[in-house]
């Protein structure tokens, strides 16, 4: 017959497990507590000292998705790894093709960016999206009218969000990194696409389709956006932004300035028509280093007799137009048939000479002052 176990001994074994059992129980309890803490504790966040950058979206190809344009919020959400570099903010200014923006909206945009900087001293910079067709124009306007040393970075894309190889998120990331970079301060408005940084003053769209379209032909890019850092190799020496004299808060409307190209046997009546329609200035995109053709000189003489400014630039894409005989300041006199209103564009492209002349004429009608502005900016 089997012997029964003493009741007290059996109960002791159940209530007091061996030491190794107790150790196992302690380990399991610790792991369970850690798991519970992992569930209740929020995930680690990025450092709060990352610079803040605001996107001011205006539309363009970068937003032109089939079925409806991407908003500023959607553009920011599309940027991979943005939180590593900056704390992003965003606002929608307009959502249009760049060619649909008006000069009044240019003024409003410049005022808005100035207001953002005035009210937020801790903001590192602003990114502006734009359609690429006229991106170089709006960028140069902001280069002259945003009166702060913090960077304004203009970007866009050559392909729309539905296209294979859409480069919008990559260009936005490069633009945000550039705007967040302290070395970008004091360099004026910057155009960033294809990981290259160009000055708004000098950059030109050089190809209708290729991704590397934005280039500074003679001087080269200011820098690049590389994996490790934003790297600058040169600086901008002309006046701009914080040193600009153009105050958009006092400008109600920009004066009319037209651009007329020189070509073989070009008629001067186009210049006369622009004058008669109210142009206060005309930029001649001349052949070579200032040559005109056909009856254009007759049209220019007509404009000068009406005290309409004539700015001579070149259609070649690079090269300076320097003041010389037949141009106005500083040797012109009041009775020289209006030749004091002839201005040399220096090395500005015709579309940018138009922008500078509009701003100059909103400030002064003195030909000497206008030529000074073209020399300094």
Explain what this protein looks like in three dimensions.
- The chain is of the alpha/beta class and 377 residues long.
- The protein contains 10 helices and 14 strands.
- The chain has helices at 7-15, 19-40, 72-77, 103-119, 135-145, 168-180, 269-276, 296-305, 350-361, 367-376; strands spanning 52-59, 87-96, 125-129, 152-155, 189-193, 196-199, 204-205, 214-215, 223-225, 230-232, 257-261, 281-286, 309-314, 342-344.
- The strands form 3 sheets. It has an 8-stranded mixed sheet with strand order 2-1-3-4-5-6-9-10, with helices on both faces. The chain has a 4-stranded parallel sheet with strand order 11-12-13-14, sandwiched between helices.
- Strand 7 (204-205) and strand 8 form a beta hairpin.
- Helix 5 (135-145) runs parallel beside helix 9, helix 7 runs parallel beside helix 8 (296-305) and helix 9 packs across helix 10 (367-376).
- It is elongated and about 65 Å long.
- Residues 1-17 and 33-44 have low confidence and may be disordered.
């Amino acid at each position: 017959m089997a012997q029964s176990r003493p009741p007290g001994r059996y109960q002791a074994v159940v209530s007091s497990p061996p030491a190794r059992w107790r150790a196992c129980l302690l380990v399991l309890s610790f792991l369970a507590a850690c798991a519970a803490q992992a569930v209740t504790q929020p995930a680690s966040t990025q450092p709060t000292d990352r610079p803040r950058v605001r996107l001011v979206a205006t539309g363009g190809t970068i937003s032109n998705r089939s079925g409806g344009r991407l908003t500023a919020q959607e553009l920011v959400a599309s940027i991979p790894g943005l939180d590593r570099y900056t704390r992003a903010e965003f606002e929608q200014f307009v959502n249009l093709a760049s060619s649909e923006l008006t000069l009044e909206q240019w003024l409003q945009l410049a005022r808005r960016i100035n207001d953002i900087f005035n009210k937020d001293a801790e903001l590192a910079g602003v990114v502006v999206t734009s359609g690429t067709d006229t991106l170089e124009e709006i960028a140069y306007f902001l280069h002259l009218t945003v009166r702060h040393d913090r960077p304004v970075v203009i970007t866009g894309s050559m392909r729309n969000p539905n296209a294979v190889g859409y480069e919008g998120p990559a260009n936005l990331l490069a633009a945000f990194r550039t705007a967040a970079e302290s070395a970008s301060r004091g360099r004026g408005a910057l155009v960033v696409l294809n990981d290259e940084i160009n000055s708004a003053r000098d950059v030109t769209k050089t190809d209708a389709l290729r991704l590397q379209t934005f280039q500074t032909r003679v001087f080269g890019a200011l820098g690049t956006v590389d994996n490790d850092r934003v790297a600058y190799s040169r600086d901008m020496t002309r006046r701009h932004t914080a040193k600009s004299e153009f105050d958009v808060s006092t400008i109600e409307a920009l004066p009319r300035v037209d651009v007329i190209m020189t070509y073989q046997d070009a008629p001067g009546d186009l210049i006369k028509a622009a004058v008669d329609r109210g142009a206060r200035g005309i930029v001649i995109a001349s052949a070579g280093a200032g040559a005109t053709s056909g009856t254009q000189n007759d049209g220019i003489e007509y404009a000068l007799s009406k005290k309409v400014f004539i700015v001579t630039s070149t259609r070649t894409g690079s090269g300076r137009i320097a003041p010389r005989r037949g141009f106005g300041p500083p040797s012109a006199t009041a009775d020289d048939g209006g030749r004091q209103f002839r201005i040399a564009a220096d090395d500005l492209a015709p579309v940018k000479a138009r922008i500078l002349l509009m701003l100059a004429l909103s400030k002064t009608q003195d030909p000497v002052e206008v030529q000074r502005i073209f020399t300094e900016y």
